[in-house]
Structures are given as C-alpha cells and as structure tokens.
C-alpha cells in the first residue's frame, strides 16, 4: 500500500532567462521579457511529494516535520529573496527556467529521501504556470 505525503512551501526569487553565448537579439527572440537585463521576480509555490510504503512502526511514509525541515534548510534558505542567476551557485552556468529550478530542487532533496521512496517536485512559477519533475 503506497501513500503520497506532500508539503507545500514558498519562496520569492528573481532571475533572468538568457544564454551568455547568444546575442541579445536571439535571447529576446526566445525568452522575451524574461530576458530583462535587470531581472524579474516570482512568488514561487513549491509542492514536494514523497511516495512509499507506510512504516508499520511509525505509521508514516515520511515524517512531515522532517520533510518540512529539509525543504526549509536546502531550498527556502538557499533560494528565498535571492537572485538565482547571481546568488545561487547551482545556476552559475544553468539557465534558471522553471524546469531547471525544479530539477535542482529535486536533486538537492533526493539525497535525503530513502531510496525506496519516490520523490516529486511541483514548482509553480505563477498560479497558471507550473512544472513537475519526478526524476530520471
């Protein structure tokens, strides 16, 4: 019997979508106003879900307090009120698209979640635009 446990979180961050190896014109064509050289920000909503068997001793798939603490320490503290391009080393050479942010979050959390459990990250960049990453 598998159950999914989810935790919502929130962070605010600025970013700019662009490629250093492209011209400004090519960046504008592909990324539009998201290529603003002065950056722009989002109020990101994050849902992290862990799926697995219920532990017969604790009754948990994962202790939600532990999941909450992991998200706070490794994601919110690292990303909240940051410029992702300038302040977060993960994006030094990685375009901080919603897709890439979700993968980075998944990779940061995966090492703390038991290997026999599935991990899913859903990242809302806006209320209508979101991405989901479940691993390779």
From TrEMBL:
<dbReference type="InterPro" id="IPR007115">
    <property type="entry name" value="6-PTP_synth/QueD"/>
</dbReference>
<dbReference type="GO" id="GO:0046872">
    <property type="term" value="F:metal ion binding"/>
</dbReference>
<feature type="binding site">
    <location>
        <position position="15"/>
    </location>
    <ligand>
        <name>Zn(2+)</name>
    </ligand>
</feature>
<keyword id="KW-0671">Queuosine biosynthesis</keyword>
<keyword id="KW-0456">Lyase</keyword>
<protein>
    <recommendedName>
        <fullName>6-carboxy-5,6,7,8-tetrahydropterin synthase</fullName>
        <ecNumber>4.-.-.-</ecNumber>
    </recommendedName>
</protein>
<feature type="binding site">
    <location>
        <position position="40"/>
    </location>
    <ligand>
        <name>Zn(2+)</name>
    </ligand>
</feature>
<comment type="pathway">
    <text>Purine metabolism; 7-cyano-7-deazaguanine biosynthesis.</text>
</comment>
<dbReference type="Pfam" id="PF01242">
    <property type="entry name" value="PTPS"/>
</dbReference>
<dbReference type="InterPro" id="IPR038418">
    <property type="entry name" value="6-PTP_synth/QueD_sf"/>
</dbReference>
<dbReference type="GO" id="GO:0070497">
    <property type="term" value="F:6-carboxytetrahydropterin synthase activity"/>
</dbReference>
<keyword id="KW-0862">Zinc</keyword>
<feature type="active site" description="Charge relay system">
    <location>
        <position position="125"/>
    </location>
</feature>
<feature type="binding site">
    <location>
        <position position="42"/>
    </location>
    <ligand>
        <name>Zn(2+)</name>
    </ligand>
</feature>
<feature type="active site" description="Proton acceptor">
    <location>
        <position position="34"/>
    </location>
</feature>
<comment type="similarity">
    <text>Belongs to the PTPS family. QueD subfamily.</text>
</comment>
<feature type="active site" description="Charge relay system">
    <location>
        <position position="81"/>
    </location>
</feature>
<dbReference type="GO" id="GO:0008616">
    <property type="term" value="P:tRNA queuosine(34) biosynthetic process"/>
</dbReference>
<keyword id="KW-0479">Metal-binding</keyword>
